[in-house]
Design brief:
The structure is a homotetramer of 408-residue chains. With 408 residues, chain A is of the alpha+beta class. Helix content of chain A is 48%, strand content 11%. Chain A is built from 18 helices and nine strands. A four-stranded mixed β-sheet of chain A has the order 3-4-7-8. The first copy, chain A, has a three-stranded antiparallel β-sheet with strand order 5-9-6, sandwiched between helices. Chains A, B, C, D: It holds the Pfam family HD_assoc_2.
């Protein structure tokens, strides 16, 4: 009688079927720490602009694991030796590389959990899981931390052409419907190779790499930094900052147990204990958004006004330009609002604020290396015959100013 | 200087660009009642099985409006007269046809908001909006209620081959990645026509209709009634029922303001006031799921145990068969659990329960009519040359039994 | 220095990248016998209806090889033992299963090469290649002929759910743009298993199989037997028949060397020599269509009139019905044409002709077997709970009558 | 009784359904001149590299017409006035813009029909059709020739962002499976507008235009100038040149009537008569390829050797570099071949030859204009904030050298 596998296949609208390679990975996926990612959207509030963009960090992580399996297959076919333990460690490391992301992806880091980065929290999760799984994640952690001596394994996890990017660009393009951001992860993986333990791209993949860089740039400006999404993200951060501010003054705020913990407790890298990690593992988009829904009716005018903006999708106006906004211009808007709402300057700054956004399309410090037919390695920025990739190494900076529509 | 439109284009990964036909519809979409649909998933907890299935009722409604525009264009090209007012009413009616759906789509209707159907609530919303928009929705409401004298307009909104189905089958198939459920909405719309004010399908569309019926049937059994999703849905309903039960006993339950209202207030069709509607309009998936997250730690064993099942995706076991389960078999499971957890029978029934699921692939009462080249109208079940569609008119019934894994 | 593979990757718009598993298969693909398939369209003259349908037998064969690799991978994961030699033989057998197809796929078989089937010619090609490749195709030939003792290997090549169908339905659906014919080859393969050396489908694949049968049926009636394609195919056959008739009377016909051979030489199964095979291997769509272009201006009225119909896509009219056309009705059309063109009855029958088309959606003689969870095997026609697949076992027959538009 | 349209819908795997706007256009499509395009592949011999790339000029022209309908709809929605006559002229002009392309697209122009460009032949076809259709193509011809006073109409037909490119890049990307070349024609069209009768792109479309330019560049180097395709194209041209050379010496060559005409008659722009046009209209890929198949066995060694290379896909070797090859290097190869095959230098040059390929990604002479929110027009090369588009205005030149493998 044939053995039919237990559920080890996951449907993905992008890749078709994704198979889970073994039972250790199956168990990691089943763990509540990982299941939390089902409740964290990959793109934060971008769904206010692109209504299809509701995909989660869970799905992205699973997708990464799938692409990593492809990469291992391709490299082995090219006679790059990768042991089964190393392969497995790669799958685990990429699966968990973002597990430390807070609710709404980046918003938390800029408001209430800001003494510690999401990478550091990811590492804490990995270590906690390693204990539970009797040390079976040790190699994955080494690779993730860049402490394993085969560089390309780390580069598959984290570099300018890592598996993370290959999945998220494709996935975000797919679910937003911005087809122009679509990249050929398959082709890019097919062009991978390893020279002196470094991850390289074969020469004939050069146009694909160029295209990848341009597609990523397009996704940044058209999607990730889309002005409506940008406003929403900043309003969200301001809501959380305001809530934290009120909490520090012992104002009562309806919120879930986990969210209350993070609002009413000062968090630093030092005091981020096991208990903190456990509570963090119970905090997701649902805590945040349901709190905001309650706060719509809070007596604090700042908090409730900002909250209503998100829930009713009635956001601030935004101006974007290449020069910083003058203090004078900002100050004028601020004062107008102060007198209109009868609030003080500090409160007005929750509604009138300016900041910059920047994006560097390509970074020459850790170059993508092209492997020529003649056996030489070149930075893509130099190997590319014409497309002036060097120009793309200069970060583009833009400045934005948000303020309420009624003081336009 | 050319006039460039305000944001009137929405990206859809399925259809590309969707344009909003006019400013009335733009304003309806902007209304908080409609914006709430952004926070109600189309497929409830199916994302526990199909991780891509996070699309919302908002997106579905917008997609329907898009297909409706196509249908109007096709019918007009075939010289079916549709006035601009009628077209507009169609867009509004289809946009709002599901606005009364509660959080997690169907779960609420079977637990805490069960004296009134979602269709009735949809109608209440439409009437409330009609007041706000000075009667501009009157014709849409007439069509939605089936009170307008041109039958095909109603049939486009609600029939066995309505625009609703054309969008949701395509959309659910797309986001789950179950490509086999994909239907050709374009082709089906291209085959539509109107005879004696009835919506018909031209003869050459017969295979497409067959295929549509089979695809829908496949989606039911493979996706909508997928056993894991089925368990999750039932556990969710039981959580809400238990919560309501506790609330009626005045047990304190952490919950959002809106959810508390529906837990602690008996709702009937009669007392579903304007105030109730307003509170309903603030209730969405986030209220439910964040409450469940809190209830994981509630002192009531039944509530907390069920809640953990959903959050950690560690669900009940399910058996499915074609015959009802015997009371004896169920009773035995129940008693085993009672003694294991030291709970009474009524409590045990939250974990051990049986019910039936059924699906009728095709209903001859309101047939899909095929219009032959010779000018005759036939029920598709008769027009189809061979595929025994009559067999599909018999509802398929299956029985399921759920119980905790530990008493397997 | 890393070894980068020679061209062993083929781009496929459907599957992405297809890799060629080894150098023997690479060499078979490079062989002129196989390269000929680049010049034989998969769907004959269907591109007169579906302009995207220009894909070739070459591409289909390569696609089959790709799916076969997937099937082998899936079965091995389920612990079905398949040796490397067997796997390789499967790839070769599926690659060459259609190599005996003549120009325009089926047209030749019904006109000038009609003493021998395309399967018999495929076998001749395989044997010729086996000689060239020192016996390395022996096992592939055994499997292809059904003479190897593991039945499932043959069933993967030829059965109601073989790899051939899994590719061509998907491919034809893709290139015609008839999305409704799309099937999930991936899912069907994922559901394959082997019991007692028989190919079976696991129970949860039952809806996918149903869907596959319905999709195939739809493709037959909507695409393969599309009335315009049907007329074109029949006109093509008539052109070749007329040409052969004229050739037998020693009328001179411009044609390529290879085509002349088949026109002026009577071909039987017995005299289909090595030389005949060699000439056959040089005959493709280009010989046929370029001859027809010349024949547009031939002095034989029948030949030139038919030829113009194809080239200018100005075809005969066709009527289709469920009953045979009466001789009286056909005769009347025929006589009208005779007097109009001043031709005799036999000549008129090249323009006025009736025949039947039939399609059996499912054949119970060699059933698709479903493997239930309880370990039983059932014919899908019985396992399917409701969809009356039995009804689909009855062949559907339709009758058509073609005649020139001017005698309508 | 409803009127159902005659066949006016064409299936396209890319766009879904394409509808034919009116009966004049229907009749033009039916004309043998246009039907010939069914037998001319869009991408010449690229199918030797990308086996899916068998799409035809017919399909491309139809696709263009479809996109043009979209463009007209978008512009009208933005209040750009386009009369029905102008719209119709646009459809006709784009439908016929490439009708003068010879067999295998570009090969003929560089060998046997080289006194006249394909654009000139297109114009001849349009004028001939205009006579047949009683002057109804007059406006289309004016626009096509750039003689109509509304510049944007011409720019839709021919510019750096014309409808032609929007279709062929998308189509070629689709059928080759090189997904990275995919562009969002829909988005680009949605961003079109008209200022002072000039076609412009709105500012928010800037990233899409960049992406379009990069995608086109990628398609050139990865697909259109793919080295195997390049060799095949050059061998094809050499075959035709050799044939013409032999024909001029009155050597007998098997060929179709039309091809013979072009081989044995010197063609110049001056003597390209109506009769020549008629014969040209009967010359397509089938004439060329079937002749080449015959020439495989021609007694002329050069002709037969080259012919076999194409048919058996056993091509010359190619080297590509950024500097010209030295005469010395080429001469050495040449001499080696001369002595090997015992042929003279001129004959050897059919096998050993060098040339350059070049591509200019963007041309500032006729810039793509970006229309800023503040109402200014800028060349995209200047409007693009960072991507150094100026770098892309410099043509990239590469040199290639072909020679037989045996003299490597």
């Amino acid at each position: 009688m044939p053995k039919t596998n237990k559920l080890k296949i996951i449907n993905d609208p992008i890749y078709g079927f994704i198979s889970i390679p073994n039972s250790l990975i199956f168990d990691i996926i089943e763990h509540p720490y990982f299941q939390r990612l089902r409740r964290v959207t990959q793109m934060g509030l971008s769904n206010l602009v692109y209504p299809g963009a509701n995909h989660t960090r869970f799905h992205h992580a699973i997708g990464c694991m799938h692409l990593m399996q492809k990469a291992v297959r391709v490299l082995r076919m090219k006679n790059v030796e990768i042991s089964d333990d190393e392969a497995n460690a790669l799958y685990i490391a990429i699966l968990l590389h973002d597990i430390g992301h807070g609710a709404f992806s980046h918003a938390l880091e800029h408001s209430i959990v800001n003494g510690i980065t999401h990478e550091e929290i990811s590492l804490k999760f990995m270590k906690a899981l390693n204990e539970e799984f009797d040390g079976k994640l040790t190699l994955a952690i080494q690779i993730f931390e860049g402490k394993y001596d085969r560089a390309f394994l780390y580069q598959l996890i984290s570099s300018q052409l890592d598996i993370d990017r290959l999945d998220y660009l494709k996935r975000d393009s797919f679910f937003t419907g911005v087809a122009e951001g679509n990249i050929s992860s398959d082709r890019l993986i097919a062009m991978m190779n390893v020279v002196n333990e470094e991850l390289v791209i074969e020469q004939k993949g050069i146009y694909s790499v160029e295209k990848f860089i341009i597609a990523r740039r397009l996704m940044y400006w058209q999607v990730y930094l889309h002005k409506t999404g940008l406003v929403a993200e900043n309003v969200l951060v301001n809501i959380l900052k305001r809530a934290k501010e009120l909490a520090m003054k012992n104002v009562e705020l309806p919120a879930s147990t986990s969210l209350k913990y993070f609002l009413y407790t000062p968090i630093t890298k030092e005091n981020f204990s096991k208990k903190t990690l456990q509570i963090f593992s119970e905090l997701d988009d649902y805590d945040i958004l349901s709190a905001i829904k309650e706060w719509k009716n809070h007596e604090d005018l700042v908090l409730s006004t900002l909250a209503r903006m998100i829930i009713d999708r009635n956001l601030l106006k935004v101006e974007i330009q290449e020069e910083p906004f003058t203090n004078k211009y900002i100050g004028k808007k601020c004062m107008k609002l102060q007198s209109l709402l009868n609030i003080d300057e500090k409160e007005a700054e929750y509604f009138v604020f300016s900041d910059k956004i920047e994006h560097q399309a390509y970074n020459t410090n850790k170059p993508i290396k092209i492997y020529s037919k003649k056996g030489k390695l070149k930075d893509i920025a130099k190997a590319s015959d014409q497309l002036n990739l060097k120009a793309l190494t200069k970060p583009v900076v833009k400045y934005f100013l948000c303020y309420p529509k009624k003081i336009m």
